[in-house]
């Protein structure tokens, strides 16, 4: 059994008379410790995959497993625990609390989970040891995204889910963040899933899942993924 499994997952959104098949038989798997990139055009269903995998929404049919647990069968109560303890999220816009320092933002996340890593250590790990007492407004976009990554990692999650994590950043900073996610995956053994429309990101992935119209059009593994620093786009 793989660490992450999607089996024939369907997600239908109904708004009045209109039905949107966001996922239409999505199947793929990801192994523990891999850096997986989910790539595809706008509207292909990438964010829907992350929302289901992150327990923020439920699928219409099919099965979703993480580490042997059937996420797709969890009730609301179980999903709340799952979101708190098992998954960390990084979004395009960092969503930091503006009146808390970098360190406090990371501590905030640790407070709701069972087995957090020390906030100061995780901030040091993302290269921000000397900026811990700064407020978000005093940090650059890339630094704020580092805080958001530290916040997600401090929960010591089984899975780190990133939706367009470089979307709000310039080229150079985006590359640094991509590098940070790659080294985090390699050095800490976290399983990392990055959703993007940027095909260049596929070069750094252990596993590439291409999605189109709510399905996995192909799943490929890279035996020798490129270093994020060497990738150009
Ligand atoms: N809450 C919702 N209600 C209705 N339709 C939705 C909802 N969320 C997503 N959809 C639709 O489902 C489809 C897939 O959306 P999704 O956000 O997963 O795409 P995406 O691949 O992340 O796109 P993008 O690259 O633009 O972020 C789209 O047609 C979208 O309009
Ligand atoms: Mg999206």
From TrEMBL:
GO cellular component assignments: membrane protein complex; plasma membrane
Highest taxon in the source lineage: Bacteria
Stretches assigned to the ABC transporter domain: 4-233
Keyword annotations of the record: ATP-binding, Nucleotide-binding, Transport
SUPFAM superfamilies, per database record: P-loop containing nucleoside triphosphate hydrolases
Short name of any one Pfam family annotated for the protein: ABC_tran
GO molecular function, one term: transmembrane transporter activity
UniProt-listed InterPro entries: AAA+_ATPase (IPR003593), ABC_transporter-like_ATP-bd (IPR003439), ABC_transporter-like_CS (IPR017871), ABC_transpr_LolD-like (IPR015854), MacB-like_ATP-bd (IPR017911), P-loop_NTPase (IPR027417)
Protein name per UniProt: Putative ABC transport system ATP-binding protein
């Amino acid at each position: 059994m793989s660490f992450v499994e999607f089996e024939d997952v369907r997600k239908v959104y109904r708004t009045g008379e209109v039905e949107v098949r966001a996922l239409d038989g999505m199947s793929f798997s990801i192994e523990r410790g891999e850096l997986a990139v989910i790539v595809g055009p706008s509207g292909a269903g990438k964010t829907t995959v992350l929302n289901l995998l992150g327990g923020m929404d439920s699928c219409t049919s099919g099965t979703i497993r993480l580490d042997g647990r059937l996420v797709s069968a969890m009730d609301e109560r179980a999903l709340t625990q799952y979101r708190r303890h098992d998954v960390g999220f990084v979004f395009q816009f960092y969503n930091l609390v503006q009146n808390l320092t970098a360190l406090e933002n990371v501590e905030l996340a640790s407070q709701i989970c069972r087995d957090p890593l020390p906030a100061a250590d995780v901030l040091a790990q993302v290269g921000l040891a000397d900026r811990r007492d700064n407020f978000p407004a005093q940090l650059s976009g890339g630094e704020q995204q580092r805080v958001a990554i530290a916040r997600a990692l401090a929960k010591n999650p089984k899975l780190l889910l990133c939706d367009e994590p470089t979307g709000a950043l310039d080229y150079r900073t985006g590359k640094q963040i991509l590098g940070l996610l790659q080294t985090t995956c390699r050095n800490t053994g976290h399983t990392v899933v990055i959703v993007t429309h940027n095909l260049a990101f596929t070069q750094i992935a252990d596993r590439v899942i291409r999605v189109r119209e709510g399905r996995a059009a192909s799943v490929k593994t890279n035996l020798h993924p490129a270093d994020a620093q060497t990738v150009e786009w």
